[in-house]
Write a structure and sequence with these properties.
This is Dihydrodipicolinate synthase family protein. The chain has one domain (7-303): TIM Barrel (Alpha-Beta Barrel). 45% of the residues lie in helices and 12% in strands. The protein is built from 12 helices and 8 strands. The protein has helices at residues 24-37, 56-70, 85-98, 115-128, 139-142, 148-154, 171-180, 194-199, 214-225, 229-243, 251-261, 278-293; strands at residues 7-10, 42-44, 76-80, 102-105, 133-137, 160-165, 185-188, 204-207. Strands 1-8-7-6-5-4-3-2 form an 8-stranded parallel beta sheet. It is globular and about 50 Å long.
Length: 304
């Protein structure tokens, strides 16, 4: 199966039981909702997937079970977030062995690599795997920016194919298109800039709130690509208070709480994370409840 690097790709949450085990029953409930809504791929092991808390054997279970549940309907993509080049190569090879069809890759964790070190890191992994790669460019959170000049060096590797564009600079979409044309696919990685990014020419959207609201997310994407801009914008304006829950340090707890309210998730997170409490919990619940009260009627977006 080929990864087209377009459409909506959920960065799915990892589901846990009350006793801190992987909860594949609820995970399958959510996965089914994503597939029925029309997503184009499933991304595992990102920030929302609480990857830094997962044991290596749990990552293997997660990939293998997801591949089984998806059953070839869409690509399964595994995130690589490692501290060393050697560990990243091993993780990429293990993901391929477990059945992943593509990789999303962060720059080196914890160490603020230089431009040359970052390019070498991505390049060495690209040379070690046959899987297509999407570079996650998020200098706001991870302190390393992958510049256009750095991409120029890396694009000699055919399997470096896409960027999850999370610089927060909407003009960067145009810069990438002007520089590389269609050679580097662009997926918006910031929920609150997703429609703007699509209007500027992005190919897809790696979303967080899709985990709780899959149909609305895919509808916005499909309507925008069909040039039904007013309809896309109306849904997006309704969606924005929810989307802002993604650009918050408590995004995992926020989105898992939203999944509870839409009946496709649980609130269990892995310590040291804890579920929301007090005033912040009440604030997020108010946003979710208001969104549910005013939830829009969607057009037949799957047949656009």
């Amino acid at each position: 199966m080929k990864v087209n690097w377009s459409g909506v790709m959920p960065a799915v949450t990892t589901k846990f039981t009350a006793d801190d085990k992987l909860d594949f029953n609820m995970f399958e409930v959510n996965l089914k909702a994503q597939l029925e809504a029309g997503v184009s791929g499933i991304i595992l092991g990102g920030t929302l997937g609480e990857a830094s808390t997962l044991l290596e054997e749990e990552k293997t279970q997660l990939v293998r079970e997801t591949v089984r549940m998806v059953d070839g309907k869409v690509p399964v993509i595994m995130n690589i977030a490692e501290q060393t080049t050697r560990a990243a190569i091993l993780a990429a090879n293990k993901a391929e062995e477990d059945g992943a069809i593509g990789l999303m890759m962060l720059p080196p964790m914890r160490y603020k690599a230089t431009d040359h070190e970052t390019v070498t890191y991505f390049s060495e992994v690209a040379k070690s795997t046959s899987l297509p790669i999407m570079i996650y460019n998020n200098p706001v959170d991870y302190k390393i920016e992958v510049t256009l000049d750095m991409f120029e060096e890396m694009l000699k590797y055919d399997n470096i194919q896409a960027v999850k564009e999370s610089t927060r600079d909407i003009s960067n979409v145009t810069r990438i298109i002007n520089r590389f044309g269609s050679r580097l696919k662009i997926l918006s990685g910031v929920d609150t800039l997703a429609l703007e990014s699509l209007f500027m020419g992005s190919d897809g959207w790696v979303s967080g709130l899709v985990d709780a609201f899959p149909r609305e997310t895919v509808a916005v994407y499909k309507l925008a690509k069909a040039k039904r801009y007013d309809e896309a914008l109306a849904i997006y304006r309704w969606f924005l208070p929810l989307l802002e829950l993604d650009i918050n340090s408590l995004l995992v707890q926020n989105i898992k709480l939203a999944e509870v309210y839409t009946n496709i998730g649980t609130e269990f997170v892995r310590a040291p994370r804890l579920p929301l409490q007090g005033d912040e919990r009440a604030r997020v619940i108010a946003i979710i409840e208001n969104a549910l009260k005013t939830r829009p009627t969607l057009p037949d977006y799957l047949n656009l």
